[in-house]
Write a structure and sequence with these properties.
The chain is an alpha/beta fold. It contains twelve helices and eight strands. The chain has a single domain, classed as Arginase, Chain A (3-Layer(aba) Sandwich), CATH 3.40.800.10. Helix 4 packs parallel to helix 5 and helix 9 packs across helix 10. It binds manganese (II) ion (MN). Manganese (II) ion binds next to loops.
Length: 310
């Protein structure tokens, strides 16, 4: 559904346009469906930030995986993904900067497909995938049918046709322009797929050894080779559970909040940055609003954006 929050007349709409994915059917726990509403309630309290963001689309499914089962979940997420793809496509073509607030990480397939399709005339888009998990299953390899474990494979062209052909038939991302940061919890089939494609994976042990600044520098060099720009997807479970407890599938030994926010300073005002996704916020598990505060800081970092590309 389209939200009637955009300004009319001669006034320019806010450059940052949020696509809300109020859906948790992609995983075992449905709590992330409440993520966008909790974040919106939080943002409403900050007039400076509230004025700089528009709420473009609200895409929702209030059900739970357990009510539906694998096949119906997959079909539902394909329908939602078409809406996500159209929303981010429209924001880019209208000159805005799309930000996804989720919701489970199945949002990534549709959201990034729309961005890649809109920017296809300018070239390939790169993507930094910050996550404890690889999200690189297909329906054939997934042990549980959770679609939030599949979006990166889909964007690379592997998985259900309904997720791999959103807005265009071709794969949305090229392996050479994708990298993962913070990886530490995955199945062997996912690693086999990504490594067979040559996707760069910065596992947590490499981050402990080299430090996040050096790894982030490598990651930026890699994604900036894509001529259409690049994006960052942040699955909040990529962070230490102490720093971002408001997730559904926490994994110990993750990225430190302070280090990630420092690394993002080199990203926010890069004119090549074309989108940012913050997924898997489950407010029921948050402690002292720590996860909300992290999301707030990530969104506030974008405030220098004057339009979609600057
Ligand atoms: Mn994920």
């Amino acid at each position: 559904m389209l939200l009637n929050t955009r300004s009319s007349g001669s006034e320019m709409p806010p450059p940052i346009q949020i696509v809300a994915y109020a859906c948790g059917i992609g995983g075992q726990f449905a709590g992330s469906r409440d993520g966008p509403a909790a974040f919106r309630n939080h943002i409403e309290q900050f007039a400076d930030l509230r004025k700089r963001v528009g709420w473009h689309s609200w895409i929702e499914d209030g059900r739970a995986f357990s009510e539906l089962g694998s096949q119906q979940v997959l079909e539902s997420i394909i329908t939602l993904s078409r809406q996500l793809a159209q929303a981010s496509f429209d924001i880019i073509t209208e000159g805005g900067f799309p930000v996804l607030i989720g919701g489970d990480h199945s949002a990534a397939a549709g959201y990034w497909s729309g961005i890649c399709a809109a920017l296809a005339p300018e070239g390939d888009v790169g993507l930094i995938w910050i996550d404890a998990h690889m999200d690189s299953h297909t329906p054939q390899t997934s042990p549980n049918g959770y679609v939030h474990g599949m979006p990166l494979a889909a964007l690379l062209g592997y998985g259900h046709q309904g997720l791999t052909t959103l807005l265009s038939e071709r794969p949305k991302l090229k392996p050479a322009h994708v990298c993962l940061i913070g990886t530490r919890d995955y199945e062997p089939e996912e690693k086999t797929l990504l490594q067979s494609l040559g996707v760069r994976i910065f596992f947590m042990d490499e981050i402990h050894y080299r430090g996040l600044p050096a790894v982030f520098e490598d990651a930026l060099r890699l994604v900036r080779q894509a001529s259409g720009g690049y994006g960052v997807t942040i699955d909040l479970d990529g962070l230490n559970p102490e720093d971002a407890p408001g997730v559904s599938t926490p994994a110990a030994n993750g990225l430190a909040k302070a280090e990630l926010l420092t690394a993002m300073q080199g990203v926010y005002n890069d004119p090549r940055l074309v989108g940012m996704e913050i997924s898997e916020f489950n407010p029921a598990n948050d402690i002292d609003n720590r996860t909300l505060a992290l999301m707030h800081a990530l969104l506030a970092g974008l405030q220098g954006k004057r339009d979609g590309r600057t």
